Amino acid sequence: MPDRLSALDASFLYLEDPTTPMHVGGVAIFERPRDGFSYEDLLTLIGQRLLYLPRYRQRVMRIPGHLARPVWIDDVDFDLNYHVRRSALPAPGNHDQLFDLVARLLSRPLDQERPLWEAYFVEGLADDRVALVTKTHQSVVDGIGTVDLGQLILEAVPQDCGAPEEDTWTPRRQPSRAQLLLDAVGETVQRPGELMENVRSAAQDAVATAEKVVGTVGGVASALRTVVRPAPAGPLNAHVSGGRVFTVVRTRLEDYRQVRAEHGGTVNDVVLAVITGALREWLMSRGTALTSAETVRALVPLAVRDAETEEFSSAGILGNEVAAYLVDLPVGEPNPVLRLQHIGHAMTEHTDSGRSVAARALLRVGGFAPATLHSLGARAAGSFSGRIFNLVVTNSPGPQQQLYAGKARMVEMFPVMPLARGQALAIGVTSYHGNVYFGLNGDRKAMSDVDSLADMLEDSLAELKGINW
Predict the structure, then answer these.
(1) Domain ranges of the chain
(2) How far apart are CA 348 and CA 236, in angstroms?
(3) Where is the O-acyltransferase WSD1-like N-terminal domain (predicted)?
(4) What CATH number was assigned to the domain covering residues 219-465?
């Protein structure tokens, strides 16, 4: 039987266009050890892990006449050096230069004639640091058969990369057009209703495709409340160009715990309150008149966790489940305490509803990595019409111990979430080793002031910390 893409995976290919590439990215910054960490070391490390990620050596093959969804086939011309690339900043490179490079790299769609992932080894950073920039298509990381590459190359203890091993992988023969057509016809006979859907999807009927996916994705769809009105209009919803801007914010996890200890709720509630306060200031800087009832609707895919375990510990995640919540962020509320209370109440309603476990079918991963959860969060967001939310906010609890790629210690990690059609901003949040890192991916035209929003995030956290409770 052919390894056919699911309806959800195929939709990410059908809905992609040059201005809205459907891949998730990440930026990890490493300290080079004394004996070095080179591009060749990274090639060796990734090459050793590909045995566990067969999807990373497969490409998509479309069916003649669009009689069925595409299939995964082994890439007989797979070239690791094509997918793991070397880049450099003019030394000593700073973070602004790095993140400008990240924006350019992540704005380019992946080549659908090859396996749908790339990694960039970026040298030239100050203090003898290097960066690893990854981009992986949403159709690849499903959390069931395939996890994100970062889940396998990072270890809790430093390890020698060793010498490159002989690659004994042998690709399976590419199926013929006749075989693909025969398989498609056989499946069409069994499920004739799919033929029209496949042809319509291939004809770029994006709305019909997305609606069909919403109806079939099951667990994720049931995780959302019925929405009877579209998301509020505003500058976050704009025509998306092909350019991107990317910036980051670094904060301390202890600050969020301090606010939580003073007021209750969860660390995630505090994170959303910080984002709400920043969005409020940003909207006003754009001249938006805010009433006290004004909201911005966020789609927030979250891991389901055990309330009795550590808030930002992967041990507290129940079966690595993901639930997608719609949350109206109260940007019209001037009081930061009330903003936090509103968000806490909204999130409590979601978790009390029992829908927090409704997305169980989405994710079954042995072990946990923030990059995988961000990818799954993007899949959840991509399954729904952008008309029902203004932006995506993924918040992934990460490990609080040091992680290493080979012997290189990872010092920072930032998610890069994709933009949906008509949405100018996506925010990814990850905790790691006592810190909380924000990655802000914006459209270059509609969000040229994304650096200002980053400053406002820091101000919003300071405002919450400084409240006389």
Answers:
(1) 219-465
(2) 26
(3) 5-271
(4) 3.30.559.30
